[in-house]
Amino acid sequence: MQRNNHNELIKSKPEYRKDDNMDWLQLKSGSDVRGNAMGTHITLTPEIACALGTAFALFTAAHCNKNISKVTISIGRDSRLTGPELLKAVAEGIARTGASVLDFGMCTTPAMYMSIITPPCEPDGAIMVTASHLPPERNGLKFFLEDGGLEEKDVVTLLQQASAVKPEEYKSAGAIRQYPFLEKYTDLLAERIRKGLNTDEKEPLHGLHIVVDAGNGAGGFYAALLDRLGANTQGSQFLEPDGRFPNHMPNPENEEAMQAVTRAVREAGADLGVIFDADCDRAAIVDGDGRAINRNRLIALISAILLNRTQGITVVTDSVTSSGLKKFIEKHGGNHYRYKRGYRNVIDTAIRLNREGVDCPLAIETSGHAALRENHFLDDGMYLATVLIVEAMHMKQCGKTLGYLIEDLQEPVESREIRLTITDEDFRNAGQNAIAKVLDYAASAESWHIAPDNREGVRISFDLDGGKENGWFLLRLSVHDPVLPLNLESDVMGGIHYMLTALYDVLRDVTGIDLTALQQSLRE
Asked: 308 falls in which pLDDT band (50, 70, 90)?
């Protein structure tokens, strides 16, 4: 894997300066703020972070209908090299409005939200400095209020307000103090394990061997928690925070990362392996048989656990989940509701369905963002891992591994993702035109079946080799980039080549779309 020269990145950092002509909205990434914070092209500077701190303090005061001097904001960061400087800037931006700051230091994103609803801390809002799984030179900010993370429209408002901040107008000095909230968050996880195992024992995990891979992010403390609860964590790795991420990217979707934790589990002879991203809002596992459980497998596993408790529940996922997963959920007595990519989209849909009377305890993306109703619909990788560890303990007592729960999950023979670059300046319109052309063709093509739950882009299933709907593709417009991601799965060999050929015949004359990646896949 090619790695960045981190020393060179640090040395090349120019003097920070605020560019009054910059497009602040370029920092918007879904419901987060993200940018380059290190290197030769910096877009997220301490000055910008400071202005965002000021804007969020004012935004929070208005939201809570409080005098700014009565507002408290908690802040934290992951292990990135630029984290301390950006966190300091955020704190200063908040304090100069007169609001107070609780500085958690290194923390996790889920813990930032939990601080708002956990006595006696209970700040009015929270900011996490992180760029999740992205490379070391990237960083960002995530914002929380009592009712959850900010929505995209709120982030737009926040960026607009931050761009207009004039530091000279804010000369107050709110208090900034250190606050060890991570200890309380850790206790909450310990309580969940004891509750799940229905015990008050000091070491309820005695006899369970768990390998933790924190990817040098913020989650290394989880191994210490498991130790305290009696688990054997021998073989755990990359627990020390290191913002260079020297061993592998902290990303449960990354193949190298999953291979690393799988190897560690096998070498240690462990019952289970757990891996987190840098800020611990995503997770994946490896079972005792050395099988990586992420993406569709992870969704199937947590769905099976919930369905063993309650039949008839609905599971909300993003749009790229497999047809085999849908069959699995329905076979086990549940309902599968696909929605758009983006963890906020999935979570908001689950919340809406519950309000409409649908029993929906889980919202989960294939990326590993998993939000459980029992945990305030907070996408918390550590909470998910905790629920799975409880189940792993139950399974071990029966002489089985977690993988037993998903033995009947049908997985594709072939799968692929291709990203088609949109070259047209108006990339959204060009992308939608391409999707519309596919939809128009599919409406009259005998062998093309438009998915009944097509809620993003166009999802088409095919009857391959005499089978029934045993192959599919999804073509959609990326949320942020001038790209059309194309996901394909087939239950028969050669199915992907067949579907790519059919799709290329439809798109070959479309303008504004670079089909080179599709053509290369056809030649493979």
From this structure: very high
Torsion of CA 279, 139, 371, 228, to 10 degrees: 10
What whole-number distance in Å separates Cα of residue 334 and Cα of residue 55?
43
State the Cα–Cα distance between residues 311 and 314, nearest whole angstrom: 9
pLDDT digits (tens, 9 = 90+) for 345-388: 999 999 999 999 999 999 999 999 999 999 999 999 999 999 99
CA-to-CA distance for 413 and 464, rounded, in angstroms?
A: 12
Other CB atoms within 10 A of residue 240 CB = 9
Bridge pairing between strands 314-317 and 362-364: parallel
Partners of residue 284 on adjacent β-strands: 275
* Model pLDDT for residues 54-112, shown as the tens digit of each residue: 999 999 999 999 999 999 999 999 999 999 999 999 999 999 999 999 999 999 999 99
Residue 138 Ramachandran class (φ > 0 left, ψ -120 to 50 alpha, else beta): beta
Which residues, 6+ apart, have CB-to-CB distance to 407 below 8 Å?
Answer: none
Is residue 13 pLDDT above 70, yes or no? no
Tokens encoding 355: 């309000």
- Under DSSP, is residue 414 helix (H, G, I), strand (E, B) or coil? strand
- Report the C-alpha gap between 309 and 394 in whole angstroms: 14
For the beta carbon of residue 60, count every other beta carbon within 10 angstroms. Answer: 26
Residue-level pLDDT at 342: 87
Q: What residues contact 224, with CB distance under 8 A and at least 6 apart?
A: none
SS3 sequence of 115-165: HHHCCCCCCCEEEEECCCCCCCCEEEEEEEECCEECCHHHHHHHHHHHHCC
Query: What are the phi and psi torsion angles at 509 (to 5°)?
Result: -100, 5
Mean pLDDT is lowest, of 2-6, 78-82, 144-148, 497-501, for 2-6
- Whether 2 shows a pLDDT value over 70: the answer reads no
In this predicted structure, the answer to whether residue 253 has a pLDDT above a threshold of 50 is yes
Quickly tell me which residue has 């200890």 as its tokens: 183
The helix (H) or strand (E) run that includes residue 397 is helix 381-397
Cβ-contact 27, 42 below 8 angstroms: no
Instruction: Please tell me the least confidently modeled range out of 17-21, 80-84, 203-207, 451-455.
Output: 17-21
SS3 for 418? strand
Q: What is the DSSP string of 213-278?
A: E-TTSS-THHHHHHHHTT-B-TT-B--S--TT--SS-S-TT-HHHHHHHHHHHHHHT-SEEEEE-T
> If DSSP codes are grouped into helix, strand and coil, which group holds residue 93?
helix
**Residue 20, pLDDT score:** 60
Cβ atoms within 10 A of the Cβ of 426, count?
A: 12
Q: Do the beta carbons of residue 324 and residue 410 sit within 8 Å?
A: yes
> Torsion over CA of 19, 20, 22 and 23, rounded to 10 degrees?
150
Phi then psi dihedrals of residue 48, to 5 deg: -65, -45
Inform me whether the pLDDT recorded for 30 exceeds 50: yes
